[in-house]
Amino acid sequence: MSVQPLTIKGAFIWDGEKGAARRDLYTSDVVLGKPAGGALTVDLGGFTILPGLINAHDHLELNHYPRSKFRERYDNAHQWGEDINARLDAEPYRSLRAYPLWDRLFIGGLKNLLCGATTVVHHNPPHKELWRGDFPVRVLREYGWAHSLHFNTDEEIVRSYRATPKSWPWFIHLAEGTDGAAAGEYRRLKALGCVGPNTVIVHGVGLTEEDTADAAPIVRGLVWCPTTNIYLLGRTAAIQPWGAKVMIGSDSRLTAEGDWLDELRGGVYSRQLDEPDHFLALLTRPAAALGLTDAGHLRCGARADWWIRGDFWIRDNILLIVKGGVPQIGTPDMMAKFPHIQTVDAALDGVPKRIHVDLARRIHQCALKEPGLEVDTLPRKRFWMGRKA
Ligand SMILES: [Zn+2]
């Protein structure tokens, strides 16, 4: 089904480092250079439109688990990994692992969509379900990855790095700890020949100053996951030396507070983020590091993924989220500006919303429930007519 073209008038369009400027936005599923025939004109005068967020780190099939740790503080996330692996056959993990893969992935995608993170980096095997047309968000397709120096052999890591095209980012959890093992990991990775222009370091909490100074000019970037780091390790990475190479990753709910916006607030609490300008730079920066030319901005050719935030950087406060030119969820007032979309009443963390009927249907079909999201029953006639065989 083709996407209804839109002409958005009167809004300030955020254009990266240059800030926001008032201009019309023309879209189909992508941003167009001029209005399309048959476009619906929508007045969003006074609102600021941001490009969809890019979440640089998640494990999409792990977001239906409770946040878990088994001691107050770990010296190294490897210890946490051993702890959780030893409990996978105990409850609640045993039951939660038994849900179908699609349902588990869907909740991860939905978590991201609901905070405006329409593009996500998945750190785990590239399950084909992630690229289904009805998956809630866009998932980076061209990537390589290894888990970590602890849970992979050296041979596996080298094989993965060499098998990843040099133009694709290659991700690894590195120095996720405060102990000597974490401090030595960068040198171990470098000795394996796996530090290069496509290497992306996830966490980097325990990197030494010397190693950071060596790594920052060479590698593609550092993914910063402050709420996971504080929860497990009591400390997070020092981001200043990384300059423009810092990207925010939410990690999964198994260790994180929640979504991308929670990480942004976690970053503020860690006293390493201050001004809103600093926040805004983090919205779009990952696009280049991830090799995406059509995300992180709303110029001609970008995907029409955008959102309008409210007064606070928190998901229930978001006014509207649009993916691929189609409004997905928003306040009742905002969604009413798009009369071509059939919507269903919903509440997100107790705040009234309206949600696209197709998304509502997928949420109802999912065996798992997104915490904090209530969606009304579907309009019956449309449900049966629209249901795919
Ligand atoms: Zn991770």
Helix-strand blueprint:
Elements (H helix, E strand, L loop, with lengths): L5 E4 L2 E3 L5 E3 L2 E3 L3 E2 L7 E4 L4 E4 L2 E5 L18 H9 L7 H5 L3 H13 L5 E4 L15 E2 L4 E5 L5 H10 L6 E5 L5 H12 L7 E5 L5 H7 L5 E4 L1 H8 L12 E3 L11 H10 L6 H9 L1 H5 L15 E3 L11 E4 L2 E5 L1 H4 L7 E6 L2 E6 H9 L7 E3 L4 H7 L3
Parallel strand pairs: 1-6, 2-7, 8-9, 9-10, 11-12, 12-13, 13-14, 14-15
Antiparallel strand pairs: 1-4, 2-3, 4-5, 7-16, 16-17, 17-18, 18-20, 19-20, 19-21
The structure holds zinc ion.
The site of zinc ion (ZN) has 6 residues, from loops.
Would you give an account of this structure?
The structure is a single chain. The two termini are 16 Å apart. The protein is built from 13 helices and 21 strands. The chain has 389 residues and is an alpha/beta fold. The chain has a nine-stranded mixed sheet. 44% of the residues are buried. It folds into two domains: 138 residues, Roll (Urease, subunit C, domain 1), CATH 2.30.40.10; 237 residues, TIM Barrel, CATH 3.20.20. The structure holds zinc ion (ZN). The site of zinc ion has 6 residues, from loops.
